[in-house]
Design goal:
Elements: E1 7-9, E2 15-17, E3 25-31, H1 40-51, E4 56-62, H2 74-85, H3 104-112, E5 128-131, E6 137-141, H4 151-157
Parallel strand pairs: 3-4
Antiparallel strand pairs: 1-2, 3-5, 5-6
GO molecular function: peroxidase activity
Keywords: Oxidoreductase, Peroxidase
Pfam families: GSHPx (PF00255)
Length: 158
């Protein structure tokens, strides 16, 4: 299965296919507003602004599976991201990233880009997946890895 075959719900409720991002380099990240890693929204936004015209897309997926750090509804999450971090990159509806209720996209990402020691689960908020223009998963970055730390990887793909 290709990453482009997955459908996702935008934060406003509209359903889209990831086919819309074919030909773009993507960072797909599970987010949480009350997480200690939430300052990464700022780095993600900076990268998006700097490289969007060259074909970078940042896709944020709120998740409440880790210590209930994303308790708000989609409207509250959207407002928080815009007001506190100036987020203009696409945000999507809240998802689960692990377990039986995991969104199929995140099951696919975790299966095809295992984490540390081959772990197929997503361990925390702000796990980031870098996808090339052909839809291949290039790398999985740990929550503590700041987006600017892999800017050179992004630039190689643009």
């Amino acid at each position: 299965m290709s990453i482009y075959e997955y459908e996702v719900n935008k934060i406003n409720g509209d359903t889209i296919s990831l086919e819309e991002y074919r030909g773009k380099v993507m960072i797909i990240v599970n987010t949480a507003s009350k997480c200690g890693f939430s300052p990464q929204y700022d780095d993600l936004q900076s990268l998006y602004v700097q490289y969007e015209e060259q074909g970078l897309a940042v896709l944020g997926f709120p998740c409440n599976q880790f210590l209930n750090q994303e308790p708000g509804d989609d409207l509250e999450i959207d407002s928080y991201c815009k007001l506190n971090h100036g987020v203009t990159f696409p945000m999507f509806a809240k998802v689960n990233v692990n377990g039986k209720e995991a969104h199929p996209l995140f099951s696919y990402l975790a299966e095809n880009a295992p984490g540390l020691m081959g772990s197929k689960s997503i361990k925390w908020n702000f796990t980031k997946f870098l996808i090339d223009r052909e839809g291949n998963i290039i790398n999985r970055y740990a929550p503590k890895t700041k987006p600017m730390e892999f800017e050179s990887d992004i630039k190689k793909l643009l």
